[in-house]
Specification:
Helix content: 25-40%
Strand content: 15-25%
Shape: globular
CATH architecture of the largest domain: 3-Layer(aba) Sandwich
Mean pLDDT: 91
Number of strands: 20
Distance between the termini: 30 Å
């Protein structure tokens, strides 16, 4: 279980725009995730940020000039370009875009860009009018035609005081694009996974609803781990305060019925359904048209069962993974669900210790095998273990189908 960033070489080129300060956080996060980050600062970037800042966070030398000393281990720009797993340019100013599009090589960043065969991710950031200028748009089209991954820019308030396109996208989005580029050849490349997450809400009246304590953290972590493994991911999310992975296809739902409909649509062509969502088992039989007023009498709600999504989905070839969040007899209840819902794998845990938490401990249970304990660990690590097992199940199913 290794994150897609661990041990990978990321070259981060920072050019001279006000958004350069935002890439400090990007460099820190990539380093914390285990990547080896080599930062290149253009001369204009030095007006906004310092080499010492990046060197402190990455614990790596920062490059600012082409004519650096060559050694037996490091051959200047040749080593950076040849050994990079991905080249990221953020922010990419109009000037740098023009240089990259025309193939100029007059500084360390542009020389490295010509020397690398790694994926290139470019995050433009500049003034609104500069971004919309025909020359800039032409350069962006040229770079995209050559295979560069363009990320943004966003629309909003700019340093010039204008409001328009030109803002650097959030660094979390750039990180997601980096992870997607590095995971493109992963073990789930070419696979489509449907992941559900979060709770559902069942209306009582226009203001009140029935729900549960699920935060969606486990489902979002599974979606991220699947993306890291190269999968195309459709994330069907109930109400959640979390930001989904930017490279996932997100479908937002609220009720159990909406989630059922979304799952039925999404599984067309999918290889696996991973149902982490805590879907309501019951909903009010009727929904009041107006807010129910408080009276001296007790309020009695009549509840009816919702459809069991996993049990109802019976598409040949689809790997089905369920979750069992229980408060007692966890393994026994999970085994019963594994059989009754015709699942390939069930993930069992103690609900009170995992719902809403950043950590989890779980058991992975197959038919006819002993439960495999995972954790206690961060939900991201548990998610990687689940995705590893799903990858094995998909591979085995494809092998069997080919016989």
């Amino acid at each position: 279980m290794v994150t897609v960033l661990k041990g990978r070489r990321v070259v981060l080129g920072v050019s001279g725009g006000i958004a350069a300060y935002k890439t400090v956080e990007l460099a820190r996060n990539l380093t914390r995730a285990g990547a080896q980050v080599d930062v290149i600062l253009t001369q204009a970037a030095l007006e906004f940020v310092t080499p010492l800042t990046f060197q402190t966070l990455t614990m790596r030398p920062v490059h600012t000039a082409v004519f650096e000393s060559w050694t037996q281990a490091a051959k200047g720009h040749i080593s950076l370009g040849e050994e990079a797993d991905v080249l990221v340019v953020a922010p990419a100013t109009a000037n740098v875009l023009a240089k990259l599009a025309t193939g100029l090589a007059d500084d360390m960043l542009t020389v490295t860009a010509l020397a690398t065969t790694a994926p290139v991710i470019i995050a433009p950031a500049m003034d609104h009018h500069m971004y919309l200028h025909p020359a800039t748009q032409h350069n962006l089209r040229t770079l995209k035609t050559r295979g560069a991954h363009l990320v943004g820019p966003d629309q909003g308030p700019l340093a010039s005081g204008l409001v328009g396109y030109g803002r650097l996208v959030p660094t979390a989005r750039i990180e997601d694009e980096i992870r997607a580029a590095l995971g493109a050849e992963g073990r789930l490349a070419g696979c489509r996974l449907v992941v559900t997450a979060g709770p559902t809400r069942e209306a009582i009246d226009p203001i009140r609803f029935l729900s549960n304590r699920s935060s969606g953290k486990m489902g979002y972590a599974v979606a991220a781990a699947a993306l890291d493994a190269g999968a195309e991911v459709i994330l069907i999310s109930g109400p959640s305060a979390l930001t989904p992975p930017y490279t996932a296809n997100v479908m937002e739902v609220e009720t159990a019925g909406e989630m059922f409909d979304a799952v039925e649509r999404a599984i067309d062509g999918a290889d696996a359904l991973i149902m982490t969502a805590a879907v309501a088992d019951y909903r009010p039989a009727t929904v009041a048209e107006h807010k129910i007023k408080k009276t001296e009498e007790d309020l009695v709600l009549s509840l009816v069962r919702t459809a069991d999504i996993l049990a109802s989905i019976r598409r040949p070839g689809l790997v089905k993974v369920g979750f069992a969040a229980e408060t007692t007899s966890v393994i026994d209840y999970a085994r019963a669900k594994l059989r009754s819902k015709d699942l390939d794998l069930i993930v069992a845990n103690e609900a009170r210790s995992t719902m809403g938490s950043d950590e989890s401990a779980a058991f992975l249970i197959h038919h006819g095998t002993e439960p495999v304990a995972v954790g206690p660990a961060a939900k991201s690590e548990v998610a990687e273990a689940i995705v590893d097992r799903v990858a094995e199940l998909i591979a085995a199913r494809r092998t069997a189908a080919a016989r």
